[in-house]
Amino acid sequence: MKQYCSDLKENLPVIVLLSHGPLAEALLESARLIAGDIENAAYLCLEEGDNPQDFKKEIEKLLNSFTQRKLVMVDLLGGTPCNSFVSVVNSLKSEVLAVSGMNLPMLLEVVGSRKSMTDTELSNCAQETGKESICNINERFSLYRMRQEDKNDCVNQN
Amino acid sequence: MIALTRIDDRLIHGQVATQWVREVRANKIYIVDDETANDEFATMICKGLAPLGTEVFVLQEDKAAGVLKAVDEKQNVRALILVKSPGALIKMLDGGLELKKVIVGGMGKRADRKAFYRSISVSDEEIRQFQEMLERGVDVQCQIVPSDSSIPVSKLIKK
Fold first, then answer.
1. How many CB atoms lie within 10 A of CB A112?
2. What is the pLDDT of residue A151?
């Protein structure tokens, strides 16, 4: 299990990333490359051989340690990090919202706009950004269309 | 109004699209670069990269001042101007555009450039152009992302 918590500020929601393996750590590291230093962020990475019971306990301990509001992001709906969160959610000191399918645009958007957001707004912001960031690049830049034209040109020449 | 003028040879990329657009609440991005403006494909890619809530325009360097003077007058526009190097900004100043502040965010390593500040490299010619901008009353600061503190270029040149 790998665990990390950044410097903490009052009045800024904490983003807590949970993942299979190093994804959470790497996602935060990648986000730093773009956004600079990121405060109020923590992660817990489940590693091979970890006991899921211990992972649950650590999630509970970590989330209960923050007086700030928080948003949990997990890598995979139905995976162990997600299920561990679900199994401890009712025993947490306060209500905590979580979203699945964490990705880089989602993290960057939440980190950048979290300050004035309510828990629900944070969760909605993460979900919307995550979905909007997925697109067909070829269509977006009309790349496929150009290629088709190239092919048509070849056919015509033949 | 002009919300931000930035020198960044990567033009629209992660730091600009996700950090600066939000920081200055930009709704229009003006890329002033002859190389991009003269390349239909590059122009199309830049327009396609418009972050949500923004529109991208690509301008020729010698025509930019006129367009941007009009943009600066519009209160409902918050423009983010992107150039690859200080040379394009000198042309805009020559064209009569008033620039109060410019931030240097990305100038990558090149054979003619030397390390200047963190990941920013500049050539002798570009140093001279920075000096000219400073003499013409433009505040030039190095700042890679909004969460960094900005460093006046004047301090870095004297070193």
1. 19
2. 60
Domains in chain A: ranges and CATH: 2-157 (3.40.50.510)
**Average pLDDT in the B85-109 region?**
97
Q: Do B147 and A35 touch (CB under 8 A)?
A: yes
Whether A134 has its CB under 8 Å from any CB of chain B: the answer is no
Q: Which residue in chain B is spatially nearest to A137 when comparing CA positions?
A: B48
Match 């949500």 to its residue by tokens: B52
CA distance B126 to B142: 14
Q: How many CB atoms are closer than 10 A to CB A151?
A: 10
Look up residue B23 and give its two tokens: 């920081």
| Cα angle, residue B27 at apex, residues B140 and B1 outer, rounded to 5° | 50
Percent of all residues in chain B with a pLDDT value above 90, rounded to a whole number? 92
Distances (CA, A) of B130 to A24, B3, B24, B99, B159: 41, 20, 23, 13, 14
Domain count, chain B: 1
Residue B76 sits at the chain A interface (C-beta within 8 Å): no
ipTM for this model: 0.70
Full domain range(s) for residue B122: 2-158
Q: What pLDDT band is residue A141 in, cutting at 50, 70 and 90?
A: confident
pLDDT grade for A4, boundaries at 50, 70 and 90 = very high
CA quadruple B105, B128, B42, B61: dihedral sign:
positive
Domain of B124, CATH number, reads 3.40.35.10
